[in-house]
Amino acid sequence: MLYSALIFGFISSLHCVGMCGPIAMMLPIDQNNSFKKWIQIATYQLGRVVAYASLGLLFGVLGSGFFFAGFQQQLSILVGVLMILIAIIPEKKLAQYNFSKPIYKLISTVKTQLGLQFKNKSYKSLFLIGLFNGYLPCGMVYVALFGAMAMNHVFLGSLYMILFGLGTIPLMAVVVNFFKSTSFTFYAKFQKAIPVLMILMGILFIVRGFGLNIPYVSPSSMNLHIQSKVNCH
User: Fold this and answer.
1) Among residues 56, 39, 40, which one has the least CA distance to residue 164?
2) The whole model's pTM is what?
3) Potential cystine with 157: which of 120, 130, 148, 229 (Cβ 3.0-4.6 Å)?
């Protein structure tokens, strides 16, 4: 299921263009030196990926707890259902519930630090901009973290989020290099595809949870559960 992280990362980048695009286009990068500009962009993207990896590590710990408790199959189904619900429930409805309220002060600090880093063009600042940007509240990241938790393993959870982050990079890199404003004529068309793709991802996780013995898609129940007896063929 790790390949789904790359797919979902690319899907999410369609959303990121509108939400994180303005931050990406405000990066203090050198527009006169193409090579240096790409290194600076890569430094920013590295910061985002590191943020996602650390969050994936945390949720991987939670997922491993479900694994050892024997609930990993149910967890995969639950994650799939949540993905589908997030896709079909109107965004304005979800916005009424501030899931980030319990950590509002922490988020406020992250935003403050993010703003301070735009004042200079050092690689450290570019990395920190990406890092703090990765920690900002985002619905797509929340969904990806559910996927990381469904990996049922600490390091696989982190790897899932790394791949998710890598999946968001191509389109975001295009935005930084070739666009000067957020008024993209094609953006609305891409936005309409996001719910459909999220539903397909949700179905994939549900099918995985059923343990249908389909290679790379739905491993057998024997592989999904810890068993007291050894299964030999």
Assistant:
1) 56
2) 0.72
3) 148
